[in-house]
Structures are given as C-alpha cells and as structure tokens.
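quick one: zinc ion bound model?
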Amino acid sequence: MRAYERLLQYVKYDTTSDENAPEGRCPSTEGQKAFAEYLVKEMERAGLAGARRDKDGYVYGFLPATCGGRPVIGLISHMDTSFSAGGAGIRPRIVKNYDGGDLVLNAEKGIVMRADAFECLAECRGMDLIVTDGTTLLGSDDKAGIAEILTAIETLKARNRPHGKIAVAFTPDEEIGRGADRFDQKAFGADFAYTVDGGRLGELEYENFNAASAEITVHGVNTHPGDAKDKMRNAILYGVEFQSMLPPAETPSHTEGYEGFYHLTRFAGNEEKAVLRYLVRDHDKTKFEARKTFLGNIADFLNGKYGRGTFELAVKDSYYNMKPVIEAHKDIVERAKRAMREAGVEPKTVPIRGGTDGAVLSWKGLPCPNLPTGGFNFHSRFECIPVPAMDKMTEVLVHLAEG
Ligand SMILES: [Zn+2]
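yep, here:
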C-alpha cells in the first residue's frame, strides 16, 4: 500500500482537537479516541509488534531489530488536526498531473487556489496533488506523517535488511500544545527520535520558537452612557490601548525566519471586562524573556495610569527552542541528512516558526528533530500534499531506519 492511500483512509476520521477541553481530558476529543483504536489495528497490519493504545489515547508499537548493536530510533506523528479549520467531512481529491495553473477546489462555492497566491503550487506542477474541496483542512498535518511511518514500516519488514529497533508512537492533542504531556518516554524506549510533522520535502528542523501564552484581563466600570462622564471606565478601550502599545511590525504577518512576534489571538469583552490573549514567540531565549517582560511593563504602566488592578497579566510558558539539546546530539541531524540524500532529497535546515512535540520531548531527554511530511498550507482550507512527496518521505524513513 502506498502512503497516500493510507492518508485518504485516515482523513475520514474527524480528529480535531479542542483547546477548550479541560486539562484532565486526554485526548481532548472523542474523534481522536476512535482514530487511536483504528491506528492500533493499522500498526498491526503494517507489521508492528506490541501495538497498543494507552488510557490517554497515545498509540505505541515497535519493529524489532534485525541485528544487534544499533540504537533504538523513534518515529512520532500526531493524530489530531488543528481547530483553525474544519476537520469533519473532509472530501479529498487527487488532481492528476497538476498543470501549474489556478486550481478550482470547489466550483459550486467558487473556491479557487490561485497559482499567483500560493507559491507552493509552482513546485507541484506535473505531480498528482491531494487537495480539499475548499471547505475543510486536509489533515495531512499530521496524518501524512502517520501514513508515511506505517508505509515505511511495511517496507522495512518486506526488505528484511539490517536495522535496529524502531519505536513508533502516535500522539493526541499536539495542536493544542499537550501532545508531549503524557508521552510515556520510558515505555517508548528510544535513544532518540524524529517527529514526522514538517512541511516541504527536504526541510529538516531542529530550531523552534520559545513559546508562551499571555492573557490580559482588563477590569472596567460600566455606567449608562448618558451619565458616564468621569465615571465609565471602558475595559474595551483600555484593551485597545494595551494593544496599541505593542510594536506594530512584530506580528506574524510582518515577520519571518528568526524574527519573533506578539500574536493577538482573541479580544473579547464589554465595558465591564475585556480579555486579550496573545501568543509570544521568539527563537532567541533572551529576546523571548524580554518580550514577556515588555508585556508586564505595559500592564504596569497602564495600571499606573488607570489604577492598580485594572490590568491583570497571566503568562505561561508553552515550550522552548530545542536547538541547544539537538546541538549536543548533532549526529542525529547528520543521520537524517544522509537518509534524505540516499532517497535523492536535498536536505535543507530551516527554523520552525512554531513548535513540535519534539521540542518538549527534547527538553525531557529525548532528542527529537522534525522531519517533513511533504505537505503545504497546514491548518488551512488550502492544505495540500503531492503524492510523490509522500512516497519520497516514506523512502527517507526507510533509509533512516537502515542507516
Ligand atoms: Zn503538525
């Protein structure tokens, strides 16, 4: 079976994770539970031993070593999909031998992927390309990773060449930042691992953001507007003032590469109370700390202006840049580069403008760079993945295991 055929099966499951689910609920959604059950059977069909789902919905299995003296390599993907776009009723379509032009995803609804708006399309010319119907995401993030890993396992079994033990895990709730929380590293038993959760073929990632979330609660006082002079303290307007003090160019839409940002993700409220939520991101640890301090300074300044307790700030770190951990194990990056070259893929190291389960696992003692799946435009209705990229990634994983 080819990797894309598996993917087309997997996207039938709605595994959208829910960021509002209580911390104690894992997986955060029922759909993931059902998919995890299915994945245990998939693991068995692909030839993995010890396939099981634990109480938190994590799925584990392993391929026994065919020779001694090799390290245990881990391969990890996540089973949930982002809540940023619909994940139910996905209707994938394969565009055969894509001609490089504008791509009509949905004629009825007039949804078109314009070639001049999506630069990835130029790279997909001549390929069979899996797209959506323009109303949901595709779910190749990260079901393509699962499909590629299991196809590689099937291939490894059939080839029966020398390789060490391969540990495989599929995690829930990566998209809501909880994927590594209940990961059983000890049972997994890998010396090092790779997440298969990246984008463009060839991209190898071991630097990611330092990440925190910040919530600013603004307390105001409401009165009848006709009688509000010197009485009303409009929390929404105070919130606007808070936002206006952040550097306007330091947002996701104005930054790239190693540049950090403040990302306002939510602003809701009324005169009485308003809440602003931010994601704070920076590759550089010192700058990351400075960003959090800056938010605190604004809150202090505005509290000085409007009275103590008007602005409440809560900041929580989410994950850290894995770079220092991986740099101490540079050989695992070299191993991945070799595997890519053996499959005819030129590796390119790029900084992740986000995080992965691997970043958290790296800091917990399991060094874990990120490999690509081959897909594009994750978390969006315009998500797509070329069939040949999935085949190539499967090949890369086979070389990685045998390398
Ligand atoms: Zn992902």
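Residues 78, 141-142, 174, 197 surround zinc ion (CB under 6 Å).
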